[in-house]
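// run 5 | inverse folding | seed 20
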């Protein structure tokens, strides 16, 4: 949540401009936009707030609401009421209400003020508004912001938004804020006729970068014992690149062991703590992409005190394991670059 003040007038003064950001899923966004944009047009006109929604290439969308305090509160009241209408069929019979849940994005440097000493402030907000409010302990991926989840009926949510705005105005963000930006979902990938395609809706769109990777793999096909280019499937072809990866020569014996075995297998890689982030990716997007492309099962151990590395366990067919190793190494290589890669090596267990 960002706030901009043009002068020192009270919070509800006309020259105070607030910007509040929310995280929403596709279906939630659809209810805000409405058929042919009717809902969002109505919300903008009735509230006077600017309401913008990030592009639709990501599962998560960012909804940005900007305006005076009055406009912000009116916009949230309209949004919450719309969600209440949608939840009406599933409302609680005993309470007679259907609680609405919203996820706000707040700079981590402001979350301490929102919680208050010993949790006093957040407790006060709960009591005043009747809403449930929770501040995430972890920052959102690749950002210095946290999610603040509020839940209740439309009236309690609007009151809660007002209280949060008051806190944010009294305690501006400290230092630079790195905003949270959802990462686009990785579309399914298929290989056919020597070309790579990503599936988008009902269409297969050519993917030049993956095609080059596929063709390069075919050039190295003889590295796989007992196979030839004609009989090699795309996964197995890509897997051979593991043996030529320039990040670490230690990958070679492990790849050879996996290829010589039959059926499912498991191997492990030790990744330095300071590099594990580029393997996991924002919100787990990179590791999910590697799982999807390789077909392997990949698990990452929790961080242990005193340990400099995290263990990555890879299970599956020999080809899927090798491809997963290659993709992991490629991510590291891209992250470090040629110069840095000589200082950081992946150590493979014996």
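// decoded
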């Amino acid at each position: 949540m960002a706030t901009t003040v043009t002068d020192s007038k009270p919070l509800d003064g006309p020259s105070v401009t607030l910007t509040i950001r929310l995280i929403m899923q596709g279906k939630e966004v659809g209810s805000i936009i409405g058929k042919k944009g009717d809902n969002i047009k109505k919300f903008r006109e009735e509230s006077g707030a600017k309401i913008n929604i990030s592009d639709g290439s990501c599962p998560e969308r960012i909804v940005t609401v900007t305006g005076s305090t009055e406009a912000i509160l009116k916009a949230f009241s309209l949004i919450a009421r719309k969600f209440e209408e949608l939840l009406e069929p599933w409302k609680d019979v005993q309470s007679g209400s259907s609680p609405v849940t919203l996820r706000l994005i707040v700079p981590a440097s402001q979350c301490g003020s929102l919680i208050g000493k010993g949790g006093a402030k957040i407790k006060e907000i709960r009591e005043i508004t009747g809403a449930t409010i929770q501040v995430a302990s972890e920052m959102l991926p690749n950002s210095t912001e946290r999610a603040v989840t509020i839940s209740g009926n439309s009236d309690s949510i609007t009151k809660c938004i007002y209280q949060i705005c008051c806190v944010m105005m009294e305690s501006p963000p400290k230092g630079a804020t790195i905003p949270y930006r959802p990462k686009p979902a990785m579309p399914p990938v298929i290989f056919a006729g020597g070309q790579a395609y990503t599936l988008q809706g009902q269409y297969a769109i050519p993917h030049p970068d993956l095609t080059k990777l596929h063709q390069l793999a075919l050039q190295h096909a003889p590295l796989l014992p007992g196979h030839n280019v004609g009989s090699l499937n795309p996964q197995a072809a890509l897997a051979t690149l593991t043996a030529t990866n320039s990040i670490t020569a230690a990958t070679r014996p492990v790849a050879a062991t996996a290829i010589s075995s039959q059926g499912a297998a498991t191997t492990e890689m030790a990744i330095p703590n300071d590099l594990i982030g580029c393997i996991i990716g924002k919100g787990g997007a990179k590791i999910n992409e590697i799982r999807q492309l390789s077909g392997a099962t990949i698990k990452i151990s929790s961080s242990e005190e005193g340990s400099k590395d995290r263990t990555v366990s890879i299970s599956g067919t020999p080809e899927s394991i090798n491809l997963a190793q290659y993709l992991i190494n490629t991510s590291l290589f891209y992250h470090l670059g040629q110069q840095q890669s000589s200082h950081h090596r992946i150590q493979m267990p014996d």
